[in-house]
Amino acid sequence: MTSPEDFGFGTQIRKSPYFDATVKWGAAGFSVYNHMYIPRDFGDPEQNFWNLVNEAILCDVAVERQVQITGSDAARFVQMLIPRDLSKMAIGQCKYIIITNAKGGVINDPVLLRLEKNKFWISLADSDVLLWAQGVATHAEMDVEICEPDVSPLQLQGPRSMDIMKALFGDDIETMKYYWLRHLELDGIELVVSRTGWSSELGYEIYLQDGTRGSELWEKIMAAGQPFGLKPGHTSSIRRIEGGMLSYHADMDIKTNPYELGLDRLINLDAPHDFIGKAALRDIRDKGISRKQIGIVMDGAPLTGPNTTFWPLKMNGATVGKVTSAVYTPRLEKNIALCMVDLAAAELGTELSVETATGRRHAVVVEKPFYDPKKKITAGKA
Fold first, then answer.
1. DSSP 8-state symbol, 222
2. What 3-state DSSP class applies to 292?
3. ω into residue 4 within 30 of 0, thus cis?
4. Rounded CA separation 221/225 (Å)
5. Which end of the chain is more exposed for a tag (fewer CB within 10 A), N or C?
6. How far apart are the C-alpha atoms of 343 and 91, rounded to whole Å?
7. Contact yes or no for 234/41 (Cβ under 8 A)
8. What is the domain partition of the chain in residue ranges?
9. Minimal CA–CA distance to 259: which of 20, 98, 80?
């Protein structure tokens, strides 16, 4: 049996509170995200996908580090970081947001949680927002305290996740609305639970606030989930690409603006508040964009895994963009991909060629998301 000592990690990359438990339950490979190891291998990724969409999986996502913002000016400060209007955000509500720099580039696309009137968590994708926020606060002249708290989330995702949550917390958990949170306790373990997740499936995120109890919490959830087919797992590239979910550093980076990603709904230029990047985003909106994120279907044999490089996309022999995330989906029996391309290549039905590592493939621009486009599954309405 593999043990934690079998992985030769240095001290400069952190281990999550669930590290020992994930190794015990079969984690055989890790990646690095937000300066922390994340399990990326529990065996066959296709089986992990089927476990997710048919029953449920438990994922260690402690790498989604939290930037905690408190103080009497917390709400005003958070609003300064974010193009989305938060004036009606209630205590206990969560929102998908983007954080932009002065040029309108995307720094991060996290989930924002409002735990109290003057207490927020920014649940991060993979970039250093803690340092960004602390730097902004230095010159903001606001009453805010910014830190990374001892908070480590798990994701419980899949159609049986609600049954497992009811076994853990009681039937009332069923009334929790999509993108809302609650403060709960499990056998003396203080938790924040939200109806969110990075899977395009029904699911929950469970935020542990005491890192010494990571293995204990993992084991309690796995025990409660056994009657419902719960398996240990990792975030599924297959399912997130099916759902058109974005991955920072792959589908976007600091040189990408929200309009190119079709995230106009997260920008409120007409709201009275000011925010970093407002002038740049107004200019981008008025001038228009020159490229756009699209979805494609590729022909050929099933891809053997997600792409690890940005494959060039060509139209009539000229390079018009790149593939950012590609995978074979066994449910749709298709090779699918998210891409960033010139506007001239973005129309539905446009035929392109993909220069993959193993040769050229024919592709066609199609609608995205590729599966459940109305997000009914995620919202629990399927």
1. H
2. strand
3. no
4. 6
5. N
6. 40
7. yes
8. 4-65+151-241, 290-382
9. 98
CA distance 329 to 316: 28
Considering only 43-52, 240-249, 369-378, which range has the smallest mean pLDDT?
369-378
Euclidean distance between CA atoms 319 and 18, whole angstroms: 44
Provide the CA 212 distance to its chain's centre, in angstroms. Answer: 25
Question: Do residues 105 and 254 make contact, with C-beta atoms less than 8 angstroms apart?
Answer: yes
Residues whose CB falls within 8 Å of the CB of residue 355, separated by 6 or more in sequence, listed in order: 311, 312, 313, 314
The one-letter amino acid code at 354 reads V
DSSP 268: -
Rounded CA separation 261/264 (Å): 8
- One DSSP character per residue, 182-204 reads EEEEETTEEEEEES--SSSSSEE
Mean pLDDT of all residues in the chain? Answer: 96
Please give the Cα distance from 83 to 128 (Å, whole number).
18
Which pTM value belongs to this model? 0.95
Q: What span, in angstroms and rounded, lies between the C-alpha atoms of 37 and 108?
A: 19
From the list 229, 210, 207, 232, the residue with the least C-alpha distance to 219 is 232
The predicted structure's pLDDT at residue 382: 59
Q: Report the CATH number of the 290-382 domain.
A: 2.40.30.110
Write the CATH number of the domain with boundaries 4-65+151-241: 3.30.1360.120
Q: What is the chain's length?
A: 382
Pick left, alpha or beta for residue 34 (phi over 0 → left; psi -120 to 50 → alpha; otherwise beta). Answer: left
pLDDT band at residue 3 under the 50/70/90 scheme: low
